[in-house]
Design a protein that fits this description.
This protein is mainly beta. 9% of the residues lie in helices and 39% in strands. The chain is built from 3 helices and 18 strands.
Length: 233
C-alpha cells in the first residue's frame, strides 16, 4: 500500500484549501483537534432582518473544558455555570451606544477551550443571536440545528459545527473510525491520501485521479464504524 501511494504522491502536487464556512453563524477558525487546547473563533456573518447584532450567547456542549472566552468588539463577556462549576454558556452584549444603524458588521467571537478527545466526530455549539434595530425592535435567531446535512425536515437554523480531527504526526497515521463517515472531505480535507485496504481517497483531484487509474486500487467514498484506515499528512 505504502509503495503504491508513494508513487501516486510523487506524481501529484497537493493543493489543500481550508473549508469555507457556509452557515451565517459558524465556526470560522477551521477544525478542532482531539484532546487539544486551542482558540475557536465564531463568525457572525450578518445581523437579523437588517438590524445590527446586539448580543450573542454561545452554549458550551458537554465535554468541552478549560473554557476561557476572549474580549471582542462587544467588549467584556459573561459566563454561565452549572451546579458543578462547569461553564455552560458565554454571553457577549454590546452597549446601546455602540449599536450600528443597520446590519453592516461582521463579528468575530473567540473562546479558548480544550476540545474533547472524540476524533472523527462533530461538536455543535448552539448559539442565540439577538439583534436590536434603531427603533428598539429586538429580534433573536436561534442557531441550534444539529442535523449535519440540515435537510430531511431540519427546520432550525444550523448551529456552529466544529469538526474534530485526530491527533497526528507528519507521515503515516493509523486510526480506527468510531462511527460511520459519509462525507470524507469533512474530516480529511488536509490529508494527502486515505487508505482502507486497497481503497483510496484524496481531497486533491490529481492524486484522486491517479489512484483511480492505478490497477488494484478502488475509490474510497465512505467509512463505517470500526474501519481501520491509514492516513498520510
Amino acid at each position: 500500500m505504502k509503495s503504491t501511494v508513494t508513487a501516486l504522491l510523487a506524481a501529484a502536487v497537493t493543493f489543500l484549501a481550508p473549508a469555507i464556512a457556509r452557515a451565517h453563524f459558524s465556526v470560522s477558525s477551521g477544525p478542532g483537534f482531539a484532546n487539544a487546547t486551542q482558540e475557536i473563533v465564531f463568525g457572525a456573518g450578518h445581523g437579523c432582518a437588517g438590524a445590527d447584532t446586539y448580543s450573542v450567547k454561545i452554549d458550551i456542549p458537554a465535554g468541552v473544558t478549560s473554557v476561557r472566552p476572549l474580549r471582542s468588539d462587544f467588549g467584556k463577556f459573561e459566563i454561565e455555570k452549572n451546579a458543578a462549576g462547569d461553564v455552560i454558556a458565554v454571553i457577549w452584549q454590546k452597549l446601546d451606544s455602540e449599536l450600528l444603524a443597520g446590519d453592516f458588521g461582521y463579528y468575530k467571537l473567540a473562546i479558548r477551550l480544550k476540545v474533547p478527545n472524540k476524533p472523527f466526530t462533530t461538536l455543535f455549539f448552539p448559539t442565540h443571536q439577538t439583534c436590536k434595530a434603531s427603533d428598539g425592535t429586538v429580534t433573536t435567531v436561534h442557531w441550534v440545528g444539529t442535523t449535519e446535512s440540515h435537510g430531511g425536515g431540519e427546520t432550525d437554523e444550523p448551529a456552529p459545527a466544529l469538526k474534530i480531527l485526530p491527533a497526528r504526526k507528519a507521515g503515516w497515521n493509523k486510526y480506527t473510525v468510531p462511527a460511520d463517515i459519509s462525507d470524507l472531505s469533512g474530516f480529511f480535507s488536509d490529508a494527502q491520501i486515505v487508505w482502507k485496504g486497497t481503497a483510496a481517497y484524496s481531497p486533491n483531484a490529481a492524486t484522486a485521479e491517479l489512484a483511480k487509474g492505478t490497477s488494484g486500487v478502488t475509490e474510497l467514498t465512505e467509512l463505517k464504524a470500526n474501519d481501520e484506515i491509514w492516513v498520510r499528512y
